[in-house]
C-alpha cells in the first residue's frame, strides 16, 4: 500500500508463533514497542503492529500465540482467524514463523502447518529459531543448515533476549528478494497427521542432542511442584508479592507526596486569593494528587507479577492451583486470568479465552470482577494506612499493613471462588469439558528491561486511562462543593445537598454524606473514590497547606468498623463501567452481566453492613 504524496509504500510482515516461544519479546526488540511478555497462553489476545526499526514502510504485525492451526480454545480461534485473513491480504509480503529451539518438536508441527498454508497462498516464510542463546549457554547445537534444507526455507538462529541474529534478520527483510521469491511447494497437499510425524523426525535429526535442559527443569519442578515444598513456596511467593506492595513502594510514594506538596506550596500562592487558586489547591493537588501518590504501588505490583511470568513460575502456579480450583468449578487455567485480574479485570477477561471449556470460562468471568485489581489498590492503601498501624518487624519483612493487604486481597479471591463454587453446583453442566492440558515452559532468568518497561507502561496506562475520568469527576465534585457559597460551608453547597440525599443509604455502614458521595462517584471507576475524598477534604481545608488524605480521614473520627466495612464493600462491589462493557461483549450475555453488577452490589452492601455492626459489637 502506497500513501499518496509519498514515495514509501507500506507492507506488512507477519510474526506468528506458539505461546512461550519468545514472540512478544522479539516483537518489542524489532519495533521498539512494549508488548507484554509472559510464559503462558492468554496474554496476547489481540494483534499488535509496529514499524520495523530501520525499515521505514514495513510494519511488523504480531499475531496471538497458538499451538496449532486446529483451534481448540477461543484464544486460538482468534489467532487462526487473523492468520487466515492475513494469507489473503495482498499487503502481506512475508511471514516470520518463530520456533523455540529448545523445544523443537513442539514448535515444528506448527511451523510445518504455517509453511504448508503459506505455500497455498504464495507467501514466503522465514523460520526464526529463537532461544539460541540458551543452547549456546549449555553447549548444545541446532543443525540450522540441515533444518533449512529439510524445510525448503530460510532458518535463522536468533535470540529475542540478547539480540543475536536481529541485525541479520533486518538485513534479510530489507532485501527486495525476500518479498519477491516464490515459496517452494513441497508441503502444499500434506495432511496434518503426516506433518506431525515429520515434525518428530526433523526434531530428532536436526535438534540439539542431550537432556541437560530437561534435567534442569525436572530438578526445579521437583521442588516447586512438590506436594509440600510446592505449596509452601506458592504461599510464600504470594505473600511476598503483597508485602512488597508496601515495602518497596513506600519511598517512591513519599517522594511523590513530597513533590506534590512542594509544588503546591509554590504554585498556589502565585495565583492569589482567586477561584483559580482554590481550584488548583483543592481540586488538582488535593484531588488528583491524592490519586497519583498510589501510582508507585501499581508499578511494583506489575513488576513482581512480570518477574513471576517471565521466569516460568506462573504456569507452575496454575498447575498447583488446578486441584483446589476444581473444587470451585474452575480449572487450573482459570488461575492465570484470575491473577491477571489483580492488575486489571479487562485483560483478565480477554485472557479467559484460553480456557477450553465454555462453562468454566463463564465461571471464570464471574470470579474475575472480585479479584483485587489495581484500581482497588489506591482505595485499599488509603483505608489500610488510615486504620492499620504501620508497625513492622524482621527488617520490614513482616508488617501489619502488609498483612492487612494480603488479607483483603485473598478475601476478594475467596469471595470469587465461593460464588463460582455455589453456581457450579446449583446449575447443571451442559458442556463436555476438555481434559486439563497445560504447557510448562522452561525456567528462565527474567528479562528485567522488558519487565521494567512494561511496568512503567502499565503505571502510565493506569494514570492516563483513569486520569480523564478522575479529572472530570474531580472538577464536577469541586464545582458542586465550591458553589454557591464559594467554599464557605461545604455542608451548604450543592455537593452537601447531594450527599445528604444519599447519606441514608450508607448510614448503616457508619458513613456520613462525604463517603456516600465518594462511593457514588466511584462507580465510574473505583480509584475515583480517592480523588473524590481528596477533593472533598481539600475544599474543607482550602485555607491551609495540603495535608495528607490519610490524616484527614483519621481526623474525621471515622470508626474502625466503617473503615473495615469500606474495605469489604470495595472488595465485592462491581464498580467499573469498562469491565461491565467488556464482560457483556466477551460473555455474549448482557443479562448475565447485569445480574452480576446488581448482585455484587447487593452482596457488598449487606456484607459491609454486617462487618460494621459486628465490629461495633466486638470493639464496644
TrEMBL record:
Residue ranges crossing the lipid bilayer per the database entry: 223-242, 283-308, 362-388, 400-423, 462-482, 559-584, 596-619
Residue ranges constituting the FeoB-type G domain according to the UniProt record: 10-179
Pfam families: FeoB_C (PF07664), FeoB_N (PF02421), Gate (PF07670)
Record key words, sorted: Membrane, Transmembrane, Transmembrane helix
GO cellular component, one term: plasma membrane
Record-level Gene Ontology MF annotations: ferrous iron transmembrane transporter activity; GTP binding
Keyword check for Transcription regulation: no
The keyword Ubl conjugation appears for this protein: no
Any coiled-coil regions, as ranges: none
Classification via PANTHER family: FE(2+) TRANSPORTER FEOB (PTHR43185:SF1), FERROUS IRON TRANSPORT PROTEIN B (PTHR43185)
Entry protein name: Ferrous iron transport protein B
